[in-house]
Amino acid sequence: MNLLILNGPNLNFLGIREPEIYGTQTLEDIEKQINHYATERGHNCTFFQSNSEGDLIDRIQQAHTDNIDGIIFNPAAYTHYSYAIHDAVKAIAVPTVEVHLSAINARESFRKESVVAPACIGQISGFGAAGYTLAVHALEENLV
Ligand code: DQA
C-alpha cells in the first residue's frame, strides 16, 4: 500500500511538548519507527506535518490524485473543531485512520469529541507512538 502519514499542529514539537503526556520521542523518531514497520510489510510511506489547516487539507486532496491507498492521520487540536478537515477526508475515497498519542477520552472534556473521526474508518487513541503502527495494521485489515 501507498500510505500517507499526516500530523497536525504542534506535533513537530514532540519531545519538547508536555513529555508527561506525549512522551519523549520526536516526530522524526516516530516517523522512522513507522517507516521501518511499514517498509518491512511491503508498504511505501510518505510523511507530512503542518501547523496549518489549509496545508493539511491540500495534502489530503492531493492523496486523491497521488494513488494513496490509506491515510494515517493525527489531526491534533483540529480533531476537535475542524469541519473543513472532516469534509476533506470525506471528499476523497481514501480510507483514513485517526490516531492520537494520548487517550483523548480520558482528558479535558473539549478533547472527548472528534469531528474528524466520523469521516474515518476508525480511531486509535491512547497507545502512544504504537498507535501509528496499529493504524498500519488496521488499514491492512480494511483491505481484506
Ligand atoms: C493529540 C490530542 C489532541 O487533543 C491534542 O490537541 C494534540 C495531540 C494526541 O495525539 O494525543 O495536539 O492529537
Tally of discrete structural domains? 1
Which CATH first-tier class would you pick? Alpha Beta
Total helix count?
A: 5
Separation, N- and C-terminal Cα atoms: 12 Å
Shape: globular
Oligomeric composition of the shown chains: single chain
Order of helical and strand elements = EHHEHEHEEH
> Main beta sheet: strand number and arrangement?
5 strands, parallel
Bound molecules: 1,3,4-trihydroxy-5-OXO-cyclohexanecarboxylic acid
Uncertain parts? none
Q: Which features would summarize this protein structure in a list?
A:
144 residues; alpha/beta; Rossmann fold; five-stranded parallel β-sheet; 18% strand; globular; binds 1,3,4-trihydroxy-5-OXO-cyclohexanecarboxylic acid
Structure, described:
The protein is an alpha/beta fold. It has a single domain (2-143), classed as Rossmann fold. Helix content is 38%, strand content 18%. It contains five helices and five strands, in the order βααβαβαββα. The chain has helices at residues 19-22, 27-40, 53-65, 83-91, 130-143, and strands at residues 2-7, 44-49, 70-74, 96-100, 122-125. It has a five-stranded parallel beta sheet with strand order 2-1-3-4-5, sandwiched between helices. Helix 4 (83-91) links the parallel strand 3 (70-74) and strand 4. Helix 3 (53-65) packs parallel to helix 4. The radius of gyration is 14 Å and the shape is globular. It starts with a strand and ends with a helix. The structure holds 1,3,4-trihydroxy-5-OXO-cyclohexanecarboxylic acid (DQA). 1,3,4-trihydroxy-5-OXO-cyclohexanecarboxylic acid binds next to loops. 1,3,4-trihydroxy-5-OXO-cyclohexanecarboxylic acid (DQA) binds at residues 10, 74, 76-77, 79, 100-102, 104, 111.
